[in-house]
């Protein structure tokens, strides 16, 4: 389980946003309304902002849809949201790990850091593997992740 991450991380692309969810999110302002007077009143809240969604599980559905499209940031967000709703069973842990690995393959430095923490400390039912954890921390640090850099002593 140690050699499969690095080639996927190298060949992935973090900016490959193919998801339909992210294609048409910018607001369309008609030309006659396009004036600088009203621009300060406009505010676009992210889907997970407080008050924007009535139910937290709606976030989970949106992240899953984007994660299934291969969006690394959504894969990370979906894994993080799954942790909140997880009961700690092996099926939940496997799903969380799957999405973290996918986000890591898409060159998401935060996913690399979180996966490094899981391996280094033996979390989510994963057997402790300090060597793999440090390799993931190094990958995250090469992408300037502050937590990974601090862990490795670069600060």
Offer a concise description of the structure.
By secondary structure, this protein is an all-alpha fold. 55% of the residues lie in helices and 0% in strands. The protein is globular.
Describe the structure.
There is one protein chain. The protein has 155 residues and is an all-alpha fold. The chain has a domain of 93 residues: Serine Threonine Protein Phosphatase 5, Tetratricopeptide repeat, CATH 1.25.40. Helices cover 55% and strands 0% of the residues. It has eight helices and no strands. Helix 4 packs antiparallel against helix 5. The longest helix is centred in the middle third of the chain and has 16 residues. The protein is globular. The N terminus is likely disordered.
Question: Which CATH class of the domain at 59-151 applies here?
Answer: Mainly Alpha
CATH architecture name of the domain at 59-151: Alpha Horseshoe
Largest sheet: none
End-to-end distance: 30 Å
**Mean pLDDT across all residues, rounded?**
75
Number of strands: 0
Secondary-structure element string: HHHHHHHH
Task: Outline the low-pLDDT stretches.
Answer: 1-31, 33-45, 50-54
Structural class from helices and strands? mainly alpha
Shape: globular
**Rounded radius of gyration (Å):** 18 Å
- Count of DSSP H/I helices: 8
Pfam family, one: Sel1
GO cellular component, one term: cell division site
InterPro entries: Mitotic_Regulator (IPR052945), Sel1-like (IPR006597), TPR-like_helical_dom_sf (IPR011990)
Region (Disordered): 21-54
